[in-house]
Amino acid sequence: MSTAAVSSDPARLGPVPAAARTRTAGRPPWVRPSVAVLLVATAALYLWNLSASGYANDFYAMAVQAGTKNWEALFFGSLDPGNVITVDKPPASLWLMALSGRLLGFSSFSMLLPNALCGVGSVALLYAAVRRTSGPLAGLIAGAALALTPVAALMFKFNNPDALLVLLMVAGAYCTVRALDRASTGWLMLAGAALGFGFLTKMLQAFLVLPAFALVYLVAAPTGLGRRLLQLLGAAVALVVATGWWIVAVALWPTESRPYIGGSTDNTPLELAFGYNGLGRIFGGDGNGGGGGGMGGNTMFGGETGLFRMFGAAFGLEISWLLPAALIAMAAGLWFTRFAPRLDRTRAALLLWGGWTVVTALVFSFMSGTIHPYYTVALAPGIAGLAGIGAVELWRGRRNFAARIVLALMLAATGVWDFILLARTPDWQPWLRWVLLVLTALVVTGLLFGLDRIRRAGIVLAVAGVVTGLLAPAAYAVVTASQGHTGSIPTSGPSGNSMGFGGGGFGGGQTSSELISLLKATTTKWSAATNGSQSAAGLALNSDTAVIAIGGFNGGDPAPTLDEFKQYVARGEITYYVSGGMGGMGPGGSGEIAQWVAENFTAQTVGGSTVYDLTTGTTTG
């Protein structure tokens, strides 16, 4: 990666990049078997004990179940097959899981299978993207680093939208790299389309990588500036189309015949995108606690904001294992290639994955609204790409003293930081961090004293360096994958920690066998209604019946209104109202509904829950 190394390698200077170089030189015989091993091992890790988490996050599982029963519910991402209210995210990830459920039957395995496959696909695409700029070895290291990131081992076995989001963002990066080969408009538009579908997965978070994609194409595409700008405009059009078709469909659909858009204040996905799930996440506000204030002081909500947030108690064990090495590789690489021609592919790769990492990390570090530790899975591909490229390029240029020193610094920083991270769980495999520290010292010493100049010893040293760098995150990822995780805020590690609602969280008393048997015996459109999705989800999943989640996620959305609920009852479409759950007297109407039911129907106790039979009694309004 040194300036001398760059200038002596004409393959890095010409307008035809790594793709053509690979085609003409051919692949070494070890490449395809190595890639196969990587992908098979990734699949084994993510598919292993896949159903251990049960329904994982009940909130999304409830919507997946609804999507297997009703096509309209699948399209909108409704929480129930009767289409009262949607989840507070776009539905793209639900489409995959619900279609899998329709094909294989709804179960924990069928729901989580698409996300595990998204993980394998992400690793494959990351390998392919890095290989085109830095060769197969860098691609293999990057792919392995992504697969073995603990938060990746967590989220690719979970049912939150993040698995599909990561796949789409990596797909966008791969398409951008392909576009750099010959200034391809088609590939660049595919990159835009991938991020557009990313928006339909988790809204504006998909766009955090946009600055990196645009920058690398503007800098390194082998064509004139005017054409580069026009091509970027075309990619923006593709992004808008891929994003907007579903939003337009929702806007044109009569509001009285579709579900309420959960989490929005005006029943539109655009307000959701730029309000609760957009600027609200960055700057905080109603429904977006975080940033160290109140509940946000808890690590599950990110803790205090600041430059080192990604290394702190909330995020460090999820994502930061290779972050020091990645930042060192990016900074050194950009310095070493500062005089390289515009079309240099090493610098282009560093801008791509470095821009991805820096922008995403800074936004996560300083956003004041709701953020959870598992969000950082979106950082994993950028960090992995930098680690793979940096390790290989610095190894190639190690004859340059500066490159050798930087490589040693990368290894030392990784070993020391991983030692510190492992010490945060002192009761779990305490020997591992000491073994890691000794191995790091041996590898760094061997590198500094030129052991790599001895051919066989050099190979051993290189392998030892990769193993040492990945040892700690790999161990933590494997133990994470072996655990079941439930709830709305899962975390990685040996304890299978989770927090939040769903998956046996709050309201667990409402899933008693007596109550479930009661709901199973109903024949109405909805077996029951209750305040908030966290209570409704357990009822729906355990009884396999339709349940209205009054007010959506937290019971605060105005769906259904009291008047609408009265109409459902008058038409005999709901059998029971189950008291409790999350909700209050706010504008969502859940409190008003609870009060109206209590005033007009007789309560009974079933399995510890207060239940009202809405098919009997005399209503008064």
From TrEMBL:
Gene Ontology biological process: lipopolysaccharide biosynthetic process; response to iron(III) ion
InterPro entries per the UniProt record, alphabetical: LipidA_mod_glycosyltrf_83, RgtA/B/C-like, RhesusRHD, YkcA/B-like_C
Localization: Cell membrane
Gene Ontology MF term list: pentosyltransferase activity
Transmembrane segments: 30-48, 103-130, 136-156, 187-220, 232-253, 310-336, 348-368, 374-394, 401-425, 431-451, 458-479
Pfam families on file: PMT_2, YkcB_C
Top-rank taxon, per record: Bacteria
Residue ranges with Low complexity bias: 14-26
Keyword Transferase listed: yes
Keywords assigned: Cell membrane, Glycosyltransferase, Membrane, Transferase, Transmembrane, Transmembrane helix
Membrane topology according to the record: Multi-pass membrane protein
GO cellular component entries: plasma membrane
Chief localisation class: membrane
Domain Glycosyltransferase RgtA/B/C/D-like: 88-245
Residue stretches making up the Putative mannosyltransferase YkcA/B-like C-terminal domain: 518-600
Region ranges (Disordered): 1-26
Stored PANTHER family: MANNOSYLTRANSFERASE YKCB-RELATED, UNDECAPRENYL PHOSPHATE-ALPHA-4-AMINO-4-DEOXY-L-ARABINOSE ARABINOSYL TRANSFERASE
Identification of the protein by name: Glycosyl transferase
Organism: Amycolatopsis methanolica 239
